[in-house]
Amino acid sequence: MKNINTMNLIEEIKKDTEEIIEKNQVAPITVEGYQAYIENGNRLQFERQYFERRRQLVTLGLALLLDDNNLSNIRMLEKIMWEVCNEYTWALPAHLDYGGEAAYDRDSPYMVDLFSAETAQTLSELVEIHGNSFSQIVKSRVESEIERRVLKPFERKEWEWEHLENNWSAVIASCIGMTALSMLKSQQERQEKIIKRLSISFDSYFRSFENDGVCEEGIGYWIYGFGYYCYFAEKYQQNYQSDQFLSEPLLKKIAAFPFYTQIGNRSFVPFSDAENPELPSGLISFCHRYFQVPVPFLDQATSLHFDHCYRWAHLSRNLLWTGTVENEQAEGVHYFSDAEWLVANFKEEKVVFAAKGGSNNESHNHNDVGHFIFGSQEELLLTDLGAGEYTRGYFLEETRYSILNNRSLGHSVPIINGCEQIAGDHQAEKVEFTESADGFRFSMNLEGVYGKESQITDYHRKWQWVKDEKMLFLQDEIHFNRNMNNKVLQNFISHYQPLIQENKISWKGEKCQVDLFFSDKLDEARTIREEYRTHQGDIREVYRLVLSAKKLTNNYKRKYKLQVKEN
Q: Residue 88's CB: how many other CB atoms inside 10 A?
């Protein structure tokens, strides 16, 4: 635990522990946060308080791993644990049901969501590891609340999340499994019954993957869902000396996902509700050691503050499991044939490109079929906005696609006859990828993702990388079912304002520049500035470069050249 890889993390733990003990105040969770979500769908007001308390809880728990005889730490941690047990509910307001107008349901204290399950897992493992340090009243209260809020509600009924094919089924089931392993050592029959039932959830989770191992929800949800699954599977292995939950062959493909989607130093393909997260070093070390797959370079434990939710399972494993991994970053072209993601990483040319087919019916879906990103390993100039601020409206079907992050207007795909892409079971067709010594071609048909109002009969999009020219070609060919007045607006997304010149558009970043070559005889270029909210709720500017045809015809065909240059 105390080694060259964990020195920085240990210093962070010590520093934050001193500050928490000196202040001697448990972070408050007030009613205003609950009210804000009911009144206007705001999640951040409550969650900032909730996660600050979890920061205190987890930091002092980690400090006890380093020094289990520190009486001041033990007493402060007991105060925090007691206040966690006093919370109205361990679930987030966004996940609660309404019992009436402007009120939460009476069963809210027993809602088993991601965060109530995580809280149970944290508390149960703290008692398991440090139980001899805590007073009996605190231990008994913790065990009673875990039973009342999580274990018994889980046993009483079937939960909707058990059948969700996304991170929910993995995270909640893994937390319940780890909680049972920590708490129910003397109730083996009950423990085994709970763990057996978890297979329903795990089967649901693995149905969200195809054979290529892609997490369509994005790298952040790979960390979340797969991370918690690995933490449970390893804990089960240690308790039962069984690889039952680690023997599925698909696990190796899933474990390698970050390596093949890394596009720069600690940056990853930002499709779907992705952010730009730091990878938990404990999980990466485990994947490398156990599954023997390539993983991103690793030489120190991830920061205490890498996860704004301060999840014990991540942070404790970062402290306990982190090793050194000296793999180089993936280079060349990697095609995920099931998800229809192409990731090209050319170190010599200092070029990064990724594009996606897939469908508009994915978990955490964005309407982004045919979207692409382009730039260098140091920065993307044509980009993806990733996850927006999680509000009530973000997850309502009627409002989700009015948000720039999620609608196709916020992606590098065209608007056709005033139509954006539509959400639902609509997908790319005739997807083809070929690679040769000269480069690669990646193409697909997109008429199915725009709907009837667009008047499209056929839409073929193709990218071609020509190695000798160090050039990316983008070609769109669209046919319509009417003879005139068809309007296509090409749309390119960047955080940098484009410079429009004759036959060339340039986006100049801090490290590199992307040039797009077009014909000003065919197209007129203009820039539209937009604003959007990040996942943290911050407002950021983004620029849409729009190319509109000067002449409207029945058939539309364009071919653009793009290149990356160092500044």
A: 13
